[in-house]
Amino acid sequence: MLVLSTDVMEYSPAMNDLKSEIRGMLVDGRLPCARAFALAKERGVDPMVVGQAATEESIKISRCQLGLFGYPEGQNPTDKNKDRVTDELKEEVSSHLADGQLPCAVAWQIAYEKKIPKLVVAAAANALGVKIRSCQLGCFK
């Protein structure tokens, strides 16, 4: 994957094109997380570049794929997955904590390796009282 520095791209035509593409992908004025990742993959850039471009345009990310933010009031998609959380998954999440928290990229990796939805991993973190940190799009630290 090509990783481009946001400092280098900030005023480049490529960044302007990226920002234009982002504006074309908005749903209710926000950029859904899945669309941001799809754009990053299509462009061959780190997702953080897409997140930074959205931030520079004052565009908020919505519908976090881990269910952490960007859903209508009262909708918590991790709640719908809490019955799918196993003791084995809780142990897996616990074994990957950094400073008592689970990095977003690690949550995604666990989901990929276990062949389960990301929301189930987030539900396991919730069940353990563990916060997910270090958003890959830069939405939270």
Question: Which strand order does the major sheet show?
Answer: 1-2
Principal-axis shape equals elongated
Percent of sequence in beta strands: 5-15%
Outline the low-pLDDT stretches: 1-10
Largest sheet: 2 strands, parallel
Helix run count: 7
What is the overall pLDDT average? 92
Number of strand elements: 4
**Total individual domains:** 2
In angstroms, what separates the terminal alpha carbons?
22 Å
- Bin the helical content: 40-55%
Would you tell me the structural class of the helices and strands?
A: mainly alpha
Instruction: Using the CA coordinates, give the radius of gyration.
Output: 16 Å
Order of helices and strands: HHEHHEHEHHE
Structure description:
This protein has 141 residues and is mainly alpha-helical. It has 2 domains: 6-62, no CATH class; 79-133. Helices cover 48% and strands 6% of the residues. The protein has a two-stranded parallel sheet. It has a two-stranded parallel sheet with strand order 3-4. Helix 3 (33-43) packs across helix 4 (47-56), helix 5 crosses helix 7 and helix 6 (104-114) packs across helix 7 (118-128). It is elongated and about 50 Å long. Residues 1-10 have low confidence and may be disordered.
List keywords for this structure.
disordered N terminus, 2 domains, two-stranded parallel sheet, mainly alpha, 7 helices, two-stranded parallel ribbon, elongated, 48% helix, 141 residues, 4 strands
Brief write-up:
The chain has two domains: 57 residues, no CATH class; 55 residues.
